[in-house]
Amino acid sequence: MNNETMTNFLMKRAFLTPDRTAVYFQDKALTFKELYNYSLNVAGQLQGLGVRKDDFVGVLLKNHLDTVIIFFALQLLGVRSVILNNRLTPSELVWQLEDSTSSLLILEDSFTDIKMVINQQLASLATITKSDLFAKKENEYADIQEEINLSDICTIMYTSGTTGHPKGVLQTYGNHWWSATGSALNLGFVESDCWLCSLPLFHISGFSILMRSVIYGMPIVLHEKFDVQKTIEDISDKKVTIMSVVGTMLTSIVDALTVSGLPEHFRCFLLGGGPAPLPLLEACVKKNLPVFQSYGMTETSSQIVTLSPEYSLSKLGSAGKPLFPSQLRIELDDHTAASPQHAGEIVVKGPNVTAGYLNRPDATKEKIREGWLHTGDIGYVDEEGFLYVLDRRSDLIISGGENIYPAEIESVLLSHPDVADVGVIGVDDAKWGQVPIAFIVKRESAALPQKELQQFCQTRLAKYKVPKQFYFTEQLPRNAAKKLLRRNLHEMINEK
Amino acid sequence: MNNETMTNFLMKRAFLTPDRTAVYFQDKALTFKELYNYSLNVAGQLQGLGVRKDDFVGVLLKNHLDTVIIFFALQLLGVRSVILNNRLTPSELVWQLEDSTSSLLILEDSFTDIKMVINQQLASLATITKSDLFAKKENEYADIQEEINLSDICTIMYTSGTTGHPKGVLQTYGNHWWSATGSALNLGFVESDCWLCSLPLFHISGFSILMRSVIYGMPIVLHEKFDVQKTIEDISDKKVTIMSVVGTMLTSIVDALTVSGLPEHFRCFLLGGGPAPLPLLEACVKKNLPVFQSYGMTETSSQIVTLSPEYSLSKLGSAGKPLFPSQLRIELDDHTAASPQHAGEIVVKGPNVTAGYLNRPDATKEKIREGWLHTGDIGYVDEEGFLYVLDRRSDLIISGGENIYPAEIESVLLSHPDVADVGVIGVDDAKWGQVPIAFIVKRESAALPQKELQQFCQTRLAKYKVPKQFYFTEQLPRNAAKKLLRRNLHEMINEK
Asked: Which segments constitute the AMP-dependent synthetase/ligase domain (chains A, B) (predicted)?
C-alpha cells in the first residue's frame, strides 16, 4: 500500500533541511545532518553488537544529547525501543525487560548498581553502558531501514493499569506521526518555532517533542531536568516558542517570573499531566502567559485533546476539543453516549491511539473496542463539545507529573506477611501536587511499625511511589463486590 | 483499523473552529459553521433526489461559493464527485460521465446548450442545474456520513494521457489529507494564513486549496477567475498570505506590480503548472516576491515536490525536494536509478499519490509499479537531491539523437523583452528526425523580425536547439489552468 510507507523520519529530515538546528543541549548544538550522521554511527555500533530489525531493545537513559542519538540510531535499524522509566527499581525494570523480551539494555554509565542487579536477575539479557556502546567498533555498513511502515512499532512504554502488572503500550511510527501533525494543525507551525523539553524523554510527553522535531524540522532545547531559572534563561536566549509542562513546573515558572512576563517570541505552554488547578490558570492569565491545556496519555502518543487558541480564556479549565484526526466520546456505564454536562468515561479514537498492549490480547480487547480506547478517566463535555476532565482516573495519583497507580502499591504492601488489607489514595501536597498515602489493616496481633512498612516499600518501589503516611485501621470501606471505595478513604482522612 | 477513519473533514472543522472564516467570495463571507450548515441543507436536497453514499455524481461548475457548498454537501453524503472541466466539449463530457457511471450531473444554470446535448446523448443520466437543486425540498434528515475512511474515494478528475481516452484519477480522502499536511510541514501554517484561489476548482491546483481550508481551519479567498487587479487588491484587503499561481498568472502580477511589491503579510506564491522560466523567477527576486516553485499533478493530489524556504534563492529554477511524506526517484529506461545530474523519468511515491485510475486496471498497473507512480515527466536531481523538471516526456523533441526540452527554449525566448508568450514543439524533419519550432506572442506594438529571434537564440542555445521556424500568433492555446496545450500547437501547424 502506498499509504503505509515513508522514508525513515530522521533520514528524510536530514535530506530536506540538513543545516537547520535539531537539538540544543547544554553548550552544544547539532544540525539535523549532524544528528543523522551521529545516529548512523551508533546504528553501526549497535549492529556490531548483533542488534537487528524488529529486536526489542531496552533504553534506560537520562535526558541527554547522547540519548537522542541512541533513540534515532535504534529507529534507523528498525528496532523497537522499550523506553524505561529511570525511577523504577531494578526488580520493576527486570519485569518490563523480561515481559518485552528485550535482547539488550542500553543504560547510563552511572547506573552501576542497577546494572549489577539486572545482570544477576536476568542473566540472559545483554547490558551495555552508553560509553561502552560508543567505544565499540562500528559495522562498516549499517543495515539501515530507509523505509518505514507507519504500522511498524517504534517505541514501547509501560503503563500500570489499575490492576496487576504494567502493560507495554505499543506506539507505532504512525501513532507518533499523527500525534505530531494533529498537534501542528492545532498550534500552528512556523519556521521560527523551537520547543523546550525538560520533561523526561522516557515519558511520551518528552519523547513526542523529539518526534515533532524531526517531523517539523524544528529545533528543540533539551534540558537534563526541569530547572526554573535555566528555563526562563533559555526561553530568552534560545528563542524558545513552545514548552511542554505539567502543573508543578508551571507553578514554579509563574512564581519565579517577574511581572514582565516572557519575551514576545514565546508562543505558549502546552500543559498536560492531569487536570490543572484553576488558581494556576488564573495566575497565568494575570501574568499574560499563554497556556494551552491538554489531555493525553501514553496510549494516545501524547495530547489528544487541546484547547484551541481562540478559547484559551473563555473556556478556562477545559482541556479543549479532540485534535483534528481524533475523536472523543463520553460513555455512560451502559456504553451509551452521555449528553452534555453529564460525566462519564472518556473514550477516544484516532490514528494516534495505540493498537494495543504488547502480548496482552485480553487487556487490549478490554480497553479498545471497535477502535475506541476506554481511558478509565472521568469527564464531561459542555454543549459546545469542550472536554472537562474531572478525575484523571478515580484512583490515579499524579505526583510531580508521575503517574502512580494505587493498585501497584497495594500489591506490594499486600505481599508483606503482616498486612491483611490495604488501600492507597493520593492526598494534596503543596510541592508535588499529590502524594500517596496508605491505609493498613494489620494481621491480628502483629506489631508493625510505620518505619518497617516504609523500608519494605523502598526496596520494592520507586521513591515517588512510597506512601508518605501509613494509617492503621480496623477495616477498609469496601462495597458488596469487595471493591475498595477509595472515596470513603478520602473521607476518613478528613475525619482524622 | 484505527488508522483509517476520521470525522468528515468539514464537520470536524465546523466543530473545532465554528466561527473562523472559511471562504470569502465577492462580497460574501462564510464561517465554517455557516458553510457546514449550508452544505448540510444541500446534502438533504441531494438525498431527496435519490443520491446515496458511493454514488458517482458529475459536477460541472464554475468557481463560486455555491460550488464550494455543493462539493462539501457531496462529501457529507459519502458521494464520489466526478469533477468536470468547464472547457470540455459536450461529447468529451458525455464520455467522462459515461466512463465514470455517474448517476447525476449538477451544472451551471447558464450551461443550457451543454445540458441539452448531454440529455440527448446520454438519456440515462439525470441532470440538474444549480438553481433547480437549491430549490428542491430537502430530506428532513440527511443521511450524513459522519465518519470517513481515508481510503474512501472523495473525488475523480480526468487527465488526458498522451494517447487514447482520458483516465479518471482516483483521489481518496487520505490523498487530500496527506497532500494538505505535507504542504503545511513545508510551508508552515499560522493562524493568520489566508489562501487566494483563482485557479479553477475543477483542477487539483484549485480543489486542493479547498481541502487545505477545512483541514487547517484557514480562510480562502475565492475568485471566479484570475484577474490581476483584483488579485493585488485582495492580497491587501483580505490579508492574503499565500496564493497558488501558474507561470502566466505570475508574469501578469509581476508586470502589474509597482516597485513597492506586495504587503508584508504576504508569505508566498506557490508556483506550479510546469517548469517555470528562469527570467520570470529572476524578475520575482528583483521585485522581492517570494516564490516557491513546485511540481505536482492530478495523480499526486497537487504538489509533491516543493522548494523549501531556505533554498528559494540558491536553487532558483529547481522544483525542490519531495514533501516529507513523499519520495522521489529518477529512473533510466532500464528502470535503474539515475545518478545526480542525469536526466530520466520522474518517479514518485507517497500517501498523496493516487491508488490508480477508475476502471483502468491496465493503465494503473502500467503507471504505478510497487507503489511508484511513473509520471512520464523528464527531470534530474542535483547532488543534494533537488529536482529539476525538464519537460513532459511526450513533449520531448529528439533531433539528430539529441534530447531537446521545449521548456528550455521557451525560457530563453521569454527573456527577450519583446516576447510576451511562447510555445515550442517539435515537427518532423527529413534530416534530423525532428526539429524545434516556436510560436511567439509579441508584446504590443513590438516590431520583432524572425531574424532577431534567431540571433537571440543562437547566442544562448546550442545550434540544434535553435527553432527552425518562428510563427507569430495573437494567443497561445492554454487550458483553464493556463497550462500550454502543445497538442493544439501541432494542429495550428497543420492548418498553416
From this structure: 14-358
Alpha helix stretches (DSSP H) within B125-246:
130-135, 173-187, 204-216, 228-237
Verify whether the Cβ–Cβ distance B351 to A13 is below 8 Å.
no
Which region among A247-261, A465-479, B100-114, B456-470 has the lowest average model confidence (pLDDT)? A247-261
- The DSSP code sequence of B226-254 is --HHHHHHHHHHTT--EEEEEHHHHHHHH
Q: Does domain A2-381 have CATH number 3.40.50.200?
A: no
Domain boundaries, chain B: 2-15+26-149, 174-393, 402-495
What residues of A are in contact with residue B13 (Cβ under 8 Å)? 324
Sheet holding B80-83, edge to edge: B126-129, B104-107, B56-60, B80-83, B153-159, B167-172
Q: For residue B265, which phi and psi values (nearest 5 degrees)?
A: -65, -20
Nearest alpha-carbon partner for B339 in B391, B281, B382, B282: B382
Distance, in Å, from the CA atom of B366 to the CA atom of B356, rounded to the nearest integer, reads 10
Across the interface, of A184, A188, A325, the residue whose CB is closest to B6 is A325
How far is residue B152's CA from residue B146's CA, in Å, rounded to a whole number?
A: 13
The CATH code of domain B2-15+26-149 reads 3.40.50.980
- Specify the fold of B174-393: Rossmann fold (3.40.50)
Please name the member of B174, B321, B350 whose beta carbon is closest to the beta carbon of A15: B321
For domain B402-495, give the fold: GMP Synthetase; Chain A, domain 3 (3.30.300)
B2-15+26-149 matches B402-495 in fold: no
> What is the per-residue pLDDT across B35-48, written as a single tens digit (0 to 9) for each?
999 999 999 999 99
Separation in Å, CA A131 to CA A28, A134, B220, B487: 18, 5, 54, 66
User: What is the fold of A397-495?
Assistant: GMP Synthetase; Chain A, domain 3 (3.30.300)
Q: Do B385 and A15 touch (CB under 8 A)?
A: yes
Angle between helices A32-48 and A65-76 (to 10 degrees): 70
> Across the interface, which of B184, B215, B324 has its CB nearest the CB of A16?
B324
Would you state the cell numbers that stand for residue A386, as one nine-digit string? 469542550
Q: Are A2 and B371 within 8 A, CB to CB?
A: yes
Per DSSP, the three-state class of A107 is strand
Burial of A272 (0-12, 13-18, 19+ CB in 10 A): buried
Strand pairing report for B167-172 and B153-159: antiparallel
Three cell numbers, residue A107: 543504560
The CA distance from B349 to B352, in Å, is 8
CA distance A347 to B162: 51
- Residues A220, A223, A227, CA angle at the centre, nearest 5°? 130
Among B324, B329, B367, B373, which would you mutate to test the A interface (most chain A Cβ atoms within 10 Å of its Cβ)? B324
Residue with cell 494489620: A442
Cβ–Cβ of B321/A349 closer than 8 Å? no
**pLDDT, position A440:** 94
pTM here?
A: 0.87
Give the gap in angstroms from C-alpha A5 to the nearest C-alpha of chain B.
Answer: 7
**Is B328 exposed, middle or buried, given 0-12, 13-18 or 19+ CB atoms closer than 10 A?**
buried
Residue B189 near residue A187 (C-beta atoms within 8 A)? no
Per the CB < 8 Å rule, is B351 touching A3?
yes
Nearest-CA distance B35 → chain A (Å):
18
Of A216, A308, A324, the CB nearest to B185: A216
| CB within 8 Å: B3 and A150 | yes
Q: Could you tell me the pLDDT band of residue B168, with boundaries at 50, 70 and 90?
A: very high
Joined grid coordinates for residue A158: 509501560
The ipTM assigned to this model is 0.87
Residue with cell 464550494: B68
| Cross-chain residue pair A151–B3, CB shorter than 8 Å | yes
